[in-house]
Amino acid sequence: MSPSPALPPPPVSVVGIGADGWSGLSGGAREVLREAEVVIGGVRQLDLLPPECAGVRVAWPSPLRPAVPRLLAEHRERRIAVLASGDPMFYGIGRALAEELGPEALRVLPHPSSVSYACARLGWPLEDTEVVTLVGRPASRLAVSLHEGRRLLALSADASTPATVAALLTAHGFGPSRMRVLEQLGSEAEAYVEGVAETWTHAPGDRLNVIAIDCRASQDALRLGAVPGLPDEAYEHDGQLTKRHIRAATLGALAPAPGELLWDVGGGSGSIAIEWMRTHPTCRAVSVERDPARAERIARNADRLGVPGLRVVTGPAPASLPELSELSGLSGLDVPDAVFIGGGLTAPGLLDACWEALRPGGRLVANTVTLESEALLAERYRAYGGELTRLAVAHAVPVGGFTGWRQAMPVTQWSVRKPSVSGDRT
Q: I want to staple 154 with a disulfide (CB 3.0 to 4.6 A). Which of 2, 23, 31, 211 is the partner?
């Protein structure tokens, strides 16, 4: 008689728990925790459990993410319950566990998230409220969401976050915004304080807090729209800046979509990469700039305009392109969905290296104002197809007591899609 196949290890139960602790859990969640042989969670969450939860308690180490596979492997033959704050699948440990084990190995029992509690207290429709997490992330990422009349919820990293957010709002021209800090949501210790960003004087309170922001811009605030083509004065630059109207046309040709990766070669002031990332929170970009001062300027612009995740590589292209490959993702398979070349077109091998790196079906856009680079783009247009466009912009300026047109240097743009199958030519 052949031996029976080994039974698969029991699924991992992921239990969401709120600030109300054990009393706020459903009967099913309590039963899971009572029966667990191992309970993994943060120290604060583990301390919320009563003695009747007799399983071995294991606190997550720091950093957490690298420890996930090791701890799961150590206890794989035992019934495991993982504690998470609120909804485990909303900026919680549930994502890491699903990536590590697969969704089929998880049993998730969510609890109302702090966002659900906050919207309930404020009377804000959840579907109309934008959420930005600042837990383990720079506060500057909030800047991309600042628009007159918008309602935002910021998930705080700790008790100091509200003061940081108030200073950021003021620095970005949103000092009149109303702020409410909601603490210990769902518990008996629930409390809140409120004020205006530019006059915020509240001392740090509880570390478990959510910040509600009613965005109000000051009269002199620079308006930054939600589409590409931000005002040129939004950028710190030394003249190396793709100007507003050309930038909008360039982003239109690059056509960013959620989750896509851009290589911005010859970053200048970083405007193309920055506005690529501003189109969607999951858009990523890596910018290469040979001048160290400009590379530092790109990083400052990215931070100020709400996309601190922009990665900047300092060095010449195409020599720096292998480093771009390494920075693009954790797997070596993460190739760019789009490449923009804003400078250095005549550098030997640059166009070929960018074309080779681009994924099949990806887009390449190159801009130039010189005859030498224009000739190169015309040659590639004949070889690969795509679109060759001349972009010309003129601005009205005073001419004596009258008004006339001042023509900016025309820009030649080549945009092309790399064939996704043999014989495809776009």
A: 211
200 CB-near residues (< 8 Å, 6+ apart): 162, 163, 166, 167, 179
The identity of residue 97, as a single letter, is L
Is 209 within 8 Å of 159 (Cβ atoms)? yes
Kindly report the CA angle at 381 between 379 and 383, in degrees rounded to 5?
A: 75
CA nearest to 251, candidates 230, 268, 226, 275: 275
For residue 331, count CB atoms less than 10 angstroms from its CB and return exposed for 0-12, middle for 13-18, buried for 19 or more: exposed
Write down the pLDDT at residue 317.
Answer: 79
Gap between the Cα atoms of 187 and 270, Å rounded: 45
Dihedral pair phi/psi, residue 326, rounded to 5°: -65, -35
Helix (H) or strand (E) holding 197: none
- Better-predicted residue by pLDDT, 424 or 174: 174
- The tens digit of pLDDT for each residue in 231-240 reads 999 999 998 8
The pLDDT of residue 416 is above 60: yes
Residue type present at position 373: S
- Reported as a single tens digit per residue, the pLDDT across 200-231 is 999 999 999 999 999 999 999 999 999 999 99
Q: What is the pTM of this model?
A: 0.89
- Residue 88 to residue 74: CA distance in whole angstroms: 22
